[in-house]
Write a structure and sequence with these properties.
Pfam families: TPR_2. It comes from Nyctibius grandis. It is a single chain. Among the domains are: 127 residues, Tetratricopeptide repeat domain (Serine Threonine Protein Phosphatase 5, Tetratricopeptide repeat, Alpha Horseshoe), CATH 1.25.40.10; 143 residues; 116 residues; 72 residues, no CATH class. The chain contains 39 helices and no strands. The longest helix has 38 residues. The N terminus is likely disordered.
Length: 710
C-alpha cells in the first residue's frame, strides 16, 4: 500500500509545487547571502514582492470573515504606511530557513532509520513489513527517492507490479536520472508482458549512463527471450488446438500425452484440451479408469516441470494446467479425490505449491484444496493423507494478499478447524511458527488485507476451543501486545473492515481470558483501560464485546478494578443495563459484581447511580439465571452502604429474593446469593423482617442457609 498522500492527480500537483517551493526558497536565501551586491539586491526585491503578495492574499482571505460594519480605516492606513524593516525581515527569513533545514535534517534521519529497518526486513524475505517501513519513511520525507525504489523492489517480490511501476515513477520525479527506477520499472513491465514499455525503460538506462551498455544488453536480451517464449507457446498451443488432438476422446488424449518425445508446451496444450473434455461424472470415471492420474508418474517431462523448485514460465503454465485438470476430474467425485491425494508427488507438492510465491499456482492450488475442505469426507481425506502441521501457518500468510487468494485461504482454514485432528496438528508449530506470524499480522493490521485478517483472528479464536492452543496463546506476551496495538490504531484506521478486525480481536481476547496466568495479570490494567475507551463506540457489537472482556479481565487484577472504578465504570454499566440486550446485560452485571466485591467506591457508586435499585430489581426478574445470580450478589454487596437497605422498604425486594432463595434454579449460586442478600437486607434494616414474616419466609430462609458459607 502506497501512502495516501500520493494517490491522485491533485496531490501529485501539490507534491510538485512543494518541490518547486523548496528550490525557490533555497535560491532566495542563497541570493540574500551573496557577496555580489546586484544579486543580493535582486533577491531582496523578489523577497519583498513575495511578502507583499502573501500579505495581500491573507488580507483577501480575512475579508470573508471580518465584520464589515466595524472597520478602523485609520489604523489600516497607518499600518500600510509603515515601511518594511528589511534587516528584520532578512533575519526572520534566515531563521525560518534554518528551522526548515533543521526540521528536514531530523526527518531525513528518521527516514533513513526506517529505510534501514525496511532493508533488514527485505533481506529476511518479510516484504510486507519492508513495505510498511518504507511507507512510514515516506511519511517523514516524501521526496526521498531511495524509499520509492526500495519499496518498488519489495512490491516486485510481492508480484504487485502496478504498484512497483507507480513507485518508480515517483522516484523519477525526485531524481529523473535514477537508473534503479528505470531498471525496476522495466522488470515490472516485463512481468506484465508490456514488452515495448519494458524496452523503453531499459533504453532510458543507456541514455542516462552510456557506461551501462552491458546492463542494457542483458535486459534487452531478457525481454527478447521472454517475448519469443510467449510467442512460441502461443504458436504451439494453436498447433495443438487446431490439429487432430482437439477431436480426440479422453482415452485417446491420455494416450497422446503418454508420448515421451514432446516438449513441455505440447503437454500443456494437451492437458488443457483434456480438461475441456471432462464434462460430467462419466468423463471423470473415464479419466480415472484410463490411468489419468498416472500422468505424473509416467511422463518425466510433466513430472519434472510440476515438481521443479524454481519454475520457469513454461513450468508455471504446465502446473496451472494440471491444477485446472484435477479440479475438473475431482469436483464432487470422492473416489477421484482419494486417488489424487494418495499420489506421492501431489501429496508432497501441495504445501510447496501453496507457498510457491506464484500467484496463478497458489490461486489454483487453493481452488483444488477447497474441493476437499468444503465437505466432511474431503476434510477427512486431507487430514488422513496430508501432514497439516504447517498448513495453518502457510494459509495464514495469505492475509498479506490483496486478491481472492486471501478469501480462499481463510475459507479453507475455517473448514479445517472443524476437524479435531487438524487442531491437534496445529499445536506442533503454534509457538514456533504460527504465533510469531499471527502477532506480526496483528501489528501490521493497517497494511494487510483487513477483511481476511478479521476472519483470521476469528479462526484463531475458534482454535481456542482446544485447551492446549488456548493456553499457549494466553501465555504469549507478544500476542497480547499485538492485540492492544490493534485496538490503539482504530483512530488511525476508521474503515469498516478495520472495525471488523477490532470486533474479532475483542472476541479472541474473551476466549483467551478463559485462562488465568501471570501474563494476563500483567496486562489486566492495559486491557481494561482499552475496553473502557471502547464503551463510547458507535458500534453496539464492539461495546458489548468490550464489556465482555472487562467482565473476564477484572477478576485477574485488583489494580485493574481500582482503575476502572476511578474511570466511572459503575455508572457506565448501569446505563448499559438500562438499555442493553441480554448479552450486554449479562456482561455488564458480571462486571459490576466483580467491582462491588472488592471496591467500596464501586458499592457507593452503584447506590448513587441506581436509585432505589430499580435496575437491579428489574434484573432479578430476568429469565437468565446468570444475570439473576450476579444481580443478587451486587445487591448484597451494596447493602453495607448506609441507607441502601432503607431505600428498599416500599419495594417488593423481599418477595423477589425469597422466591429465588427457595427456588429450584439449576445454578446454586442463585439461591446462595439471594439468601445472602436477604439476610444482609434484614440485618441492615430490621423492618424488612416484618415483610418476611408476612410471606412466611423465615422457614424458607432457614432452609436456604445451607447455601450461606459465612
Amino acid at each position: 500500500p502506497g501512502p495516501a498522500m500520493l494517490a491522485d492527480g491533485e496531490q501529485e500537483a501539490d507534491f510538485q509545487r512543494f518541490l518547486r517551493r523548496v528550490d525557490d526558497i533555497a535560491n532566495l536565501v542563497q541570493g540574500l547571502n551573496s557577496t555580489d551586491p546586484a544579486v543580493k539586491e535582486k533577491a531582496f526585491a523578489e523577497t519583498e514582492k513575495r511578502l507583499h503578495d502573501q500579505e495581500t492574499s491573507e488580507e483577501e482571505e480575512s475579508k470573508t470573515t471580518v465584520n464589515r460594519t466595524v472597520i478602523n480605516t485609520q489604523a489600516s492606513d497607518v499600518a500600510n504606511a509603515e515601511a518594511v524593516n528589511a534587516d528584520g525581515f532578512l533575519a526572520i527569513l534566515e531563521k525560518d530557513a534554518k528551522e526548515r533545514a533543521k526540521r528536514r535534517k531530523r526527518n531525513e534521519h528518521l527516514a533513513n532509520a526506517l529505510k534501514e529497518k525496511g532493508n533488514n526486513s527485505f533481506r529476511k524475505g518479510d516484504y510486507v513489513t519492508a513495505i510498511q517501513r518504507y511507507t512510514e519513511g515516506l511519511e517523514k520525507l516524501k521526496d526521498k527517492q531511495e524509499l520509492y525504489t526500495n519499496r518498488a523492489q519489495a512490491y516486485l517480490k510481492m508480484h504487485e507490479y502496478e504498484k512497483a511501476i507507480g513507485d518508480c515513477e515517483w522516484a523519477l520525479k525526485c531524481n529523473e536520472k535514477c537508473i534503479k527506477a528505470y531498471f525496476l520499472m522495466g522488470k515490472a513491465h516485463l512481468a506484465l508482458k508490456h514488452y515495448s514499455e519494458s524496452r523503453q525503460c531499459y533504453e532510458k538506462i543507456l541514455q542516462t549512463d552510456p557506461q551501462k551498455e552491458s546492463l542494457f544488453q542483458d535486459c534487452m536480451n531478457e525481454v527478447n527471450l521472454e517475448e519469443k517464449r510467449v510467442k512460441d507457446e502461443e504458436r504451439a498451443m494453436k498447433e495443438v488446438e487446431s490439429g487432430k488432438l482437439a477431436a480426440l476422446s479422453i482415452k485417446e488424449l491420455l494416450q497422446k500425452l503418454d508420448r515421451p518425445d514432446q516438449n513441455i508446451l505440447y503437454y500443456t496444450g494437451g492437458i488443457r484440451l483434456l480438461t475441456g473434455a471432462v464434462r460430467d461424472c462419466t468423463d471423470q470415471t473415464l479419466f480415472r479408469t484410463n490411468n489419468g492420474f498416472s500422468i505424473l508418474k509416467d511422463n518425466e517431462t510433466v513430472r519434472r516441470g510440476f515438481c521443479a523448485e524454481r519454475k520457469n514460465t513454461a513450468e508455471v503454465d504446465l502446473s496451472v494446467s494440471l491444477l485446472f485438470l484435477w479440479q475438473a476430474v475431482c469436483a464432487g467425485n470422492e473416489e477421484n479425490q482419494r486417488f489424487l491425494l494418495t499420489h506421492p508427488d501431489v501429496n508432497a507438492q501441495l504445501p510447496k505449491l501453496l507457498s510457491s510465491g506464484v500467484s496463478e499456482i497458489e490461486k489454483e492450488t487453493l481452488a483444488l484444496i477447497s474441493l476437499y475442505s468444503e465437505n466432511e469426507n474431503g476434510r477427512r481425506l486431507l487430514v488422513r493423507h496430508q501432514d497439516l502441521t504447517k498448513w495453518l501457518q502457510i494459509l495464514m500468510t495469505f492475509v498479506n494478499s490483496t486478491d481472492a487468494r486471501a478469501s480462499s485461504a481463510m475459507n479453507i482454514l475455517s473448514d479445517l478447524t472443524e476437524e479435531e485432528r487438524f487442531r491437534i496438528q496445529c499445536r506442533v508449530t503454534l509457538s514456533t511458527g504460527v504465533l510469531p506470524l499471527f502477532t506480526q499480522l496483528l501489528t501490521s493490521a493497517k497494511w494487510v488485507n483487513q477483511a481476511a485478517l478479521a476472519r483470521c483472528i476469528g479462526i484463531m479464536g475458534n482454535l481456542c476451543a482446544d485447551v492446549v492452543i488456548r493456553t499457549q496463546m494466553a501465555e504469549c506476551k507478544e500476542c497480547w501486545q499485538a492485540c492492544l496495538k490493534l485496538v490503539d490504531e482504530r483512530f488511525d484506521v476508521s474503515t469498516p473492515k478495520y472495525h471488523e478486525c477490532l470486533f474479532a480481536v475483542l472476541g479472541l481476547m474473551m476466549n483467551l481470558l478463559l485462562e488465568s496466568n501471570v501474563i494476563i495479570q500483567h496486562f489486566a490494567v492495559d486491557v481494561s483501560g482499552r475496553c473502557m475507551s471502547l464503551l463510547g463506540d458507535k458500534d453496539g457489537r464492539i461495546v458489548t464485546r468490550a464489556i465482555g472482556v472487562l467482565s473476564r479481565i477484572l477478576p485477574a487484577s485488583s489494580s485493574a478494578v481500582e482503575e476502572v472504578v476511578k474511570g466511572g465504570v459503575v455508572k457506565k454499566m448501569v446505563k448499559f443495563l438500562k438499555a442493553g440486550g441480554e448479552m450486554t446485560s449479562n456482561y455488564a452485571i458480571k462486571t459490576l459484581s466483580v467491582c462491588t466485591r472488592s471496591s467500596r467506591q464501586a458499592q457507593e457508586d452503584l447506590v448513587k447511580s441506581d436509585k432505589r435499585f430499580r435496575v437491579l430489581l428489574k434484573l432479578l426478574d430476568s429469565e437468565n439465571e446468570m444475570i439473576v445470580g450476579n444481580a443478587a450478589f451486587c445487591l448484597g454487596q451494596c447493602l453495607v452502604i448506609p441507607g441502601a437497605a432503607t431505600s428498599l422498604l416500599n419495594s417488593n425486594v423481599v418477595m423477589i429474593l425469597l422466591k429465588h432463595a427457595g427456588g429450584d434454579a439449576t445454578r446454586t449460586s442463585v439461591q446462595e446469593n439471594a439468601a445472602i442478600a436477604l439476610g444482609k437486607l434484614c440485618v441492615a434494616e430490621p423492618r424488612h423482617i416484618v415483610q418476611l414474616r408476612k410471606l412466611n419466609g423465615l422457614a424458607i430462609l432457614n432452609s436456604s442457609m445451607k447455601y450461606v458459607h459465612s
